[in-house]
Amino acid sequence: MEANDSFADLIERxxxxxxxxxxxxxxxxxxxxxxxxxxxxxRFWIESENLPVDTSFLLYxxxxxxxxxxxxxxxxxxxxxxxxxxxxxxxxxxxxIPILSELYEATSLLRERPIAxxxxxxxxxxxxxxxxxxxKVSMLPSPEEEIAEVDRAKFKKHFGRFAETLQAxxxxx
Amino acid sequence: MPxxxxxxxxxxxVLFDTSVLIAASTFVASKELSVxxxxxxxxxxxxxxxxxxxxxxxRIGIVTATVEGQAYHVLEQAIxxxxxxxxAERAVDxxxxxxxLNYCENRLREILSYMLREPVDSLEVSxxxxxxxxxxxxxxxxxxxxxxxxxxxTEAAPRQLKRLAFDIYKTxxxxxxxxxxxxxxxxxETTDKTILAEAIYLLNVYKQVEGKNVAFYITSTDxxxxxxxxxxxESRGITDTIKELFGIICDWPRQIEQILKNEIE
Lengths: 173, 265
Fold this sequence. Notes:
The structure holds 2 protein chains of 2 kinds.
Chain A: H1 3-20, H2 27-47, H3 53-83, H4 88-109, H5 117-136, H6 143-147, H7 152-170
Helix pairs in contact in A: 1-2, 1-4, 2-3, 3-4, 3-5, 4-5
Chain B: H1 3-9, E1 11-16, H2 18-25, E2 27-30, E3 35-38, H3 42-54, E4 61-63, H4 65-85, H5 90-112, E5 116-117, H6 122-144, H7 150-154, H8 162-185, H9 190-210, E6 214-219, E7 228-230, E8 233-235, H10 237-246, E9 248-251, H11 253-264
Parallel strand pairs in B: 1-4, 1-6, 4-5, 6-9
Antiparallel strand pairs in B: 2-3, 7-8
């Protein structure tokens, strides 16, 4: 199934769940499919060495964040079904899916098209919106969850480089 | 007027510059990873933000859309620079920098939630921008024509100590003038000028609403605003001019927090 169809299917099922006020775990399969596609796309941007590195990174970063939201959504659906809780996850998902779908489509289209600067700016802004909305409806992993699996030494080294660059950018000697 | 009453009636507003927001956002702490890393100015920036949070109802901390947008932009720009400088293993570099960007943006979002985002009238800000540009141009001229008193002062020193005295006076000159001479080395960014122009506009708005009892500050680690302090000496040519022309006090987070503590607590 194409990702666009998956998003349409997801919205349809969420609307049904909202009407019935009951969690349907069949969405987990759709979410798994979308997560897989995101991972493929992430890999594609990592390997796109013909593009400027900051362009590839923005598109990777955007796809990775979409995946993080989808993974959190999947976890919450599984948890809601297990605990039989008040299904907030349905309305919360409805809040983020339209932005996710739009961002996913914009990013995916760039795999086969020339990349204009204004499209990158659009993606960057949409990504901020996605993260803000996802944060409000608890659809983002916590910072601790996000860095839990990372190689500690490499993380420290990269963070050190980043902090030094920031300092050089903002502070005069 | 009794001192206590005078203190209570004075309203304090602190406009946060991008540099302080960035310093406070650049922090990672994880027990699992045994990671605890931070920006060199994190502590003093966070301490001021903690104070603002403690006195949230007083609405002391303010930002503008320019500052907010610039803060996010700087984080992205730093990642971009890092990637352009060196990418050994793209898969690893991309993943870790994506995590770092998310981590710092989360912190920035939280910090901004303690601030009041003030709207500004862009036409009025543009008028102020011209005044700000003129100020920095005049300061650059001043920097080019600074007196060099080291030679004069050295004349009074005993002959055998002249060389040493000259070196000491020269270093003192360099430090005391460094805020102005920095302008020649590193010109002021347009966004910095815009931030000052917005601050002037906001101070005028507050004066109209609150009367004259408003103390307005910009907190920044940027020497285009805040004084340079080194070896017990202070360079504040720009800072004093901003205060004199526009009535705005610029300083580092530590000093602003101290002022606020003395005034409020």
